[in-house]
Amino acid sequence: MHMASLTFSPAATSVKPGTSVSVSVLLDTEGEEVNAVEGSVTLNGGVIQSVSDGNSAIAFWITQPQVVQGTRVSFAGIIPGGRSGNALRILSLTAHADEEGVMTFGADQLRVLANDGKGTAVPAETGSTAIAVSTEVQSIAATPTRDREPPNPFIPRVVHESNLTDDRAALIFVAQDKGSGIERYDVFESKRELTANDAVRWEPAQSPYVLRDQTRGSHIYVRAVDREGNERIAHLPPGRDLAWYEYETIPDTIPCILLLLLGLIFVFILLRRWRTPPYPLSGARRATRSSRSS
After folding, report:
1. What pLDDT digit, counting tens, does each position of 199-233 carry?
2. Mean pLDDT for the chain?
């Protein structure tokens, strides 16, 4: 069986103290098609400033890459459909060199699964890279670049999976970002379609997300936000036609309708009093008045 390996790029370089360097973490599958990767990256002799999963081969993160105590990043994710290659990008790190010495990137707890429908473990090994930190060498420091592009367009899907959500309607979504990587997702459900001026109360979400409206009578909005704050919003229309009383604008108009009805009733009472002649005298009172006049 093939031997997969986790490597680093650049394999070696040098920087001056007080500068930063960017290192990519790559997976070489040695021709084997794989669909899941798990592992950890460690740094000795420096501080990991940030991590990015932009343009990663991983589509679904089980463990989102996060920096722990400035020296370690753990990750786990799935590659739908499987992929093979000698330099599949997993993530990238930016590390800061505080003082002269050597910064060493390594990896451990690497686990790779074959795309064979059985979850077969692929033998894997880890590599390392050493970066010299010295005032006497030419510095190849990382040049900070600002990610100004939003995540790529994506299409959420509504599914019913008994294994995941007890057969409840759930939202499945994933977005890719080639720059800084996806930081979070938010979801919003509404009975009416949003406009540009609407205030939205986004709810943090992860895929799969169980829908609040299980009848599929709501507009569904999913927002993907990358690590630089750029965002992409995907919209799913309702899965059925709404009844008139289900629209969110109906509750807002009820007070107006009640006030209108009260106004009409008041006008009707005034008109009736104005048009009604004085009450006729009773028979006894008419006879009394007739006798007096005679």
Report:
1. 889 999 988 899 999 998 999 999 999 988 999 99
2. 83
Neighbours of 80 (CB within 10 A): 11
Q: How far is CA 283 from CA 277, 278, 279, 286, in A?
A: 18, 15, 12, 5
Is domain 4-133 classified as CATH 3.30.70.260? no
Quick: pLDDT tens for 153-208.
999 999 887 666 677 899 999 888 888 888 899 999 998 888 877 888 999 998 88
Q: In angstroms, rounded to a whole number, what is the distance separating the alpha carbons of residues 31 and 48?
A: 31
* Nearest Cα to Cα of residue 77 among 95, 98, 62: 62
Residue 15 banded pLDDT, cuts 50, 70, 90:
confident
Sheet with 88-96, edge to edge strand ranges: 47-52, 88-96, 20-28, 4-9, 124-126
Note the pTM of the prediction, 2 decimals: 0.64
Phi, psi of 42 (to 5 degrees): -125, 155
Per-residue model confidence as pLDDT tens digits over 60-93? 888 989 899 999 999 999 998 899 999 999 999 9
Chain-centroid distance of CA 120 in Å reads 31
Q: Would you say 209 and 130 are in contact if contact means Cβ atoms under 8 Å apart?
A: no
